[in-house]
Amino acid sequence: MTDTLALVPSGIDTYRQPVIYMTEDCHVCRSEGFAAQTRVRLDLRGRWIIATLNVVKRGEWLEANTAALSISAWQAIGAEPGDRGRFSHPEPPASASLIRAKAYGDRLSEGDFTAIVGDTLDNRLSEIELAAFLTACTGDRLDEAETVALTRAMLAAGTRLDWGMQTVLDKHCVGGLSGNRTTPIVVAIVAAAGGLIPKTSSRAITSPAGTADTMEVMTPVNLDAAELRKVVEAECGCFVWGGALNLSPADDHFIRIERPLDLDSTGQLVASILSKKAAVGSSDVLIDMPVGPTAKVRSREAAVALGNRLREAGRQIGLKVVLHISDGTAPVGRGIGPALEAADVLSVLRRRSDAPADLRARAIDLAGELLQLGELADEGSGRACAEALIESGEAEAKFLAICNAQGGFREPSVARQRLEVIASRTGVLTSVDNRVIARIAKLAGAPRQKNAGVRLNVHPGALVQRGQPLFEIHAETSGELEYAHAYAQAHVDVMKIGEIAS
After folding, report:
1. How many domains does the chain have?
2. d(CA 253, CA 70)
3. Is the bond into 447 cis (omega within 30 degrees of 0)?
4. Could you say which of 13, 213, 264, 354 is catalytic?
5. What is the CATH number of the domain that holds 108?
6. What is the pLDDT of residues 187-225, one digit of tens each?
7. Cβ 470 vs Cβ 457: under 8 Å
């Protein structure tokens, strides 16, 4: 069988991209005309995958006539030691021409998006083709009809949970505001009130932490659909990473490309949010939209426009969407990074005197709106009800119960390396650049290193003295700490200090 090779695991993590490694003088490479970055099809026992080929020199670490598979490729094909796989050229992806059409400004139909989503999930599209598609959709390049079409295509490609005729509540923040980790608190409050809130969350895309990253510090989040349902039926809520559930699975492929490119698309954002909300079975969704000069949404007008798009697209797929516009001028809480944000969440739930007041207030506002939306509180009394559930300790108890149902609760830990950044002058802190402070946290290792990030010591409006610590960088290694500190020193205006009013 001249088109087969022995398969071995490479042990190389390529995230969700299947990669195959062959030697440059491999007989399959020569006979099939494979070269570096060629897309190849691998068949094994009735299963197949399409992967990207990397070519290595024989003897470096790979034997001749052997193909090494990345971790994701090995798992996807279900390979076992001793297997031999058959390699061939895959058929060209039918959606490649649709991507080119979109790049030139053509409008795409739901069938077109379905083809692109299908080829994405089959790994028929290369990294370059996926990047081209997402780039062609950036900004406002998807109109309302295309946004709905993409949402439906993404939703149809995965699993959809069904909770019967019950009201199923959900909450989502569009992001762009560091430390705004209200979701765990909101879920605990709503579930304590008896509301059904099966919360699935994403990992960070361009931020130092997503809700799933933060919750993973305290409890397992990689639950499958059966495990999620068991937790929700027992405790009314959950904190689960959506990527493990096959809910709108194409979105995770898109995120993998969007993350390094730091791309933002209004239509893609709407499709990403709503397809996952509909997939988890939500009926009523509250969208938190922070607005500020360095947040993701820069103006109230932009927030209203995005909110209208979300509401209309939601209506067309059967979701009731309510918009909550919030202050996005500065980070929320003290922690920026998974463990640091987890500590803030716990301090609010535990009613500590030093808990971040802004995080507490935001979470209570949002939970109050959801309680009213789900008719768990009378109109106008939602906020008071939410606050009472915090003060009574019921929200904390529900939070711990959900964590225990998911596999147990653990306390956040603290980074080994820490360094303070101090004020160079006396004055009033006037602003914090959300994007720069988030960048510092990411350079320190967040979210990959769960304990890494930034801890804020002051917020806008505070009087600071020269030499006073403004924030503290947390890292797991000295190299990452120095890297983040150097960036902070090069961006001294991350925290602007103005004159004290006379």
Report:
1. 4
2. 17
3. yes
4. 264
5. 1.20.970.50
6. 999 999 999 999 999 888 778 999 999 999 999 999 999
7. yes
Which helix H or strand E contains 456, and what residues bound it? strand 453-456
Strand ranges for 202-306 from DSSP E: 237-241, 284-291
CA distance 469 to 492: 13
- Joined together, the tokens standing for residue 87 give 């390699």
For residue 429, the enclosing domain spans 417-498
Cα(35)–Cα(125) distance, integer angstroms = 17
* pLDDT at residue 1 in the model: 54
CATH number at residue 489: 3.90.1170.30
**Those residues with Cβ within 8 angstroms of residue 119's Cβ, 6 or more apart along the chain or in another chain:** 93, 94, 95, 96, 125
Q: Distance between CA 188 and CA 403 in Å, rounded? A: 10
Instruction: List the structure tokens of 306.
Output: 């995005």
Asked if 112 is an active-site residue, the reply is: no
Look-up of token digits 């795409």? 108
Contact 425, 466 (CB under 8 A): yes
Angle between helices 110-121 and 250-261 (to 10 degrees): 80
Question: Quick one: residue 23, left, alpha or beta (phi over 0 = left, psi -120 to 50 = alpha)?
Answer: beta
Is the pTM value of this prediction over 0.85? yes
How deeply is 419 buried, as exposed, middle or buried, from its count of CB atoms within 10 A (0-12, 13-18, 19+)?
middle
β-sheet bridge partners, residue 40? 51
Secondary structure E strands in 296-391: 320-327, 335-336
| Structure confidence at residue 253 as a pLDDT band (50, 70, 90) | confident
Of 392, 476, 464, the closest CA to residue 432 belongs to: 464
pLDDT for 502 equals 65
State whether 137 and 174 are in the same domain.
Answer: no
* Same domain, residue pair 237 and 252: no
Whether residue 427 is found in the same domain as residue 305: no
Domain boundary among 405, 430, 457: 405
| CA dist., res. 375 & res. 194, Å (int) | 11
